[in-house]
Structure formats: C-alpha cells, structure tokens
Design a protein that fits this description.
It is a single chain. The chain is 35% helix and 5% strand. A two-stranded antiparallel ribbon has the order 1-2. A hairpin with a 5-residue loop joins β1 and β2.
Amino acid sequence: MSSRPAGARGEPDARRRARPARRCGPGKRIGRDADTAPRPDPYETLDDARRGIGGYVDRYHHRPHSGLDYKTPYEVKQTWEDLQNIAA
C-alpha cells in the first residue's frame, strides 16, 4: 500500500476538483468555462439600458456610504456646495 495522498496516483482529490464557472454580478462569470459560457444581454433596447443604468446611479447617490461617514454622496455634495456659497 502506498503512502501517497489521493490525487498523486491520478485519482481525483476532492479538494482539488475543478469548480464550474459561477456568476459574479449581472452577466459575469468567473472560474472554469468562463470564456466559453454565453453572456446574457441584460438590456433589450438602448432605452432599457438608460433606464436601468440611470436607476442604479440614482440609488447609488442616495444611499449611505461608510467612506462618507454614512452620509449619501448627494448629502456630501450639498454640504460642499453650501460651504462654497458661504466662502464666496
């Protein structure tokens, strides 16, 4: 009997089995077969894309961010503009 670990004799090692590609965001795939897997088109028309991306940007600017001391980018912009108007 050999003292070699599984996989050393050509047997598959459960820890080293290749994993199938998995999704990492809309339409993105990572891992094995990532380049060969079809990527779905998330938008049917240009108007759909504008609505979807515009909605994302709007949500992004109106939600708190830890890097902004849990203020929204919109609040930070307003504060900065107010300070600029006072200084002028």
